[in-house]
Design brief:
about 140 residues, mainly alpha
Length: about 140
């Protein structure tokens, strides 16, 4: 109890606050609810102003971006994706299967040569003494 008294002497207002923390009677502020409501309203208003500010800045940036796109003939990502999708649909229109992938020339055209069996190919890569065993 001695330490608590010394604290109270150093900070005279501390005893009232300590009493509140310990569950003592708080002084009820009749306007507390009204003040809290005003504070919440002010926060909402600041948030709306901030959003409006950033929306305006983004609109200005988008206008500048569009100017650059027009100047250099660049399309937006969404436009490119939409055109690619439309091209895919046009290619596969009337077809029930997926679009065929292009096969490079020379792939699968000539008949496969099977004059050697797989066993002969394997034997070719074995060491000398083992090759002799299989050839007999």
């Amino acid at each position: 109890a001695g330490a608590w008294l010394t604290g109270a002497l150093l900070c005279p207002g501390a005893t009232k606050d300590m009493g509140k923390m310990l569950g003592g009677d708080e002084e009820k502020d009749p306007d507390a609810a009204k003040k809290e409501e005003e504070r919440q309203e002010a926060l909402r208003q600041e948030e709306e102003e901030r959003k409006a500010k950033y929306a305006k800045m983004e609109a200005e940036r988008e206008a500048m971006r569009q100017g650059i796109r027009d100047k250099y003939g660049i399309k937006k990502k969404e436009e490119r994706e939409a055109e690619a999708q439309a091209a895919m649909e046009a290619n596969s229109e009337g077809s029930l299967t997926r679009p065929k992938k292009a096969i490079p020339p020379g792939c699968g055209d000539e008949p496969e040569e099977e004059d050697e069996s797989i066993l002969d190919t394997v034997i070719k890569y074995l060491p000398g003494p083992l090759q002799d065993m299989f050839k007999k």
